[in-house]
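Customer escalation, tier 2.

The customer says the design service returned an amino acid string that "doesn't look like it belongs to this structure." They asked us to rerun it and document both sides in this ticket. The original C-alpha cells are below, unchanged.
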C-alpha cells in the first residue's frame, strides 16, 4: 500500500515509516498539516495516517478540507487525545478510524489493512461530474449539458485527471507525471497543445469556459 503519514513529531514519524516500510508498504511523510494537505492533493494514497495536533494546520481541518474536495481516501487518526469526545470529533471530521497514542504497532498495521480492505470492497466510482460536465469511466464517454464530446485517449486521460482535481490548480509537473508518466520535463509544448485541444472541445459553444489557465501556476477546471 501507499501510505501518507502526516505527523509533526520527526522521531515518531520516522519510526512509524520504518516499521511500515519493513512490512512492505510505501510511505510518504508530511511534516505538518499544510505539508500533509499538499501531499494528499498531489498524490494517490491507499490510506492516510493523520495526527490531530500539528502546527500550521491541525488534523481535523486537514481531513475536513480533503473531504469537502471529494477526497475519499481512508483516514486513520492517530492522537494522544483519547476521550470519547475527541474520537467522535475525529470521526465527524471525516476520519474512518481513530487510534490513541501510545499504540501497539501490530494494532496500527491491522487497522490500516482493515481500512484498505474496506475501501477495496466498497463501490467503485465510475461516473465523474463537475458542474454540467460528466465523464463515464466505463463507457468512456464525456458529456456537457447532454452534448456528447468526442475525445482522443490522451485527452480523456487529461480531462479525467482535471476532473478528479476540480477546483484545484494543477501544475505542469503534476500533468507530466500523472498523465504522461514523465518524471522529467521534456521541454516541449505537449501539455499546451493538449490543453488547447481539450479546451476547444469542452468549452466551445458554451457561454462559460470551465478550463482555466492559472497564471504562473498551471491550469484549473472550475464547475
Amino acid at each position: 500500500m501507499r501510505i501518507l503519514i502526516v505527523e509533526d513529531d520527526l522521531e515518531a514519524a520516522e519510526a512509524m515509516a520504518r516499521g511500515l516500510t519493513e512490512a512492505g508498504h510505501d510511505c510518504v511523510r508530511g511534516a505538518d498539516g499544510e505539508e500533509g494537505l499538499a501531499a494528499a492533493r498531489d498524490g494517490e494514497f491507499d490510506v492516510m495516517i493523520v495526527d490531530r495536533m500539528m502546527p500550521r494546520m491541525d488534523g481535523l481541518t486537514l481531513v475536513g478540507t480533503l473531504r469537502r474536495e471529494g477526497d475519499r481516501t481512508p483516514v486513520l487518526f492517530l492522537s494522544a487525545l483519547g476521550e470519547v469526545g475527541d474520537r467522535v470529533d475525529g470521526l465527524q471530521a471525516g476520519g474512518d478510524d481513530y487510534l490513541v497514542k501510545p499504540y501497539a504497532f501490530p494494532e496500527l498495521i491491522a487497522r490500516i489493512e482493515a481500512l484498505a480492505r474496506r475501501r477495496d470492497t466498497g463501490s467503485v466510482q465510475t461516473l465523474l461530474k463537475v458542474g454540467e460536465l460528466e465523464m463515464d469511466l466505463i463507457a468512456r464517454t464525456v458529456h456537457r449539458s447532454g452534448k456528447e464530446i468526442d475525445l482522443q485517449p490522451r485527452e480523456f486521460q487529461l480531462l479525467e485527471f482535471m476532473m478528479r482535481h476540480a477546483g484545484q490548480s494543477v501544475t505542469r509537473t503534476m500533468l507530466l507525471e500523472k498523465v504522461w508518466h514523465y518524471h522529467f520535463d521534456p521541454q516541449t509544448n505537449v501539455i499546451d497543445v493538449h490543453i488547447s485541444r481539450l479546451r476547444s472541445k469542452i468549452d466551445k459553444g458554451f457561454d462559460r469556459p470551465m478550463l482555466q489557465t492559472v497564471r504562473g501556476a498551471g491550469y484549473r477546471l472550475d464547475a
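Tier 2 assessment: The sequence is consistent with the input. The mean pLDDT is 89. The chain has two domains: 2-120, 127-221. Sent an explanation to the customer and offered a walkthrough call.
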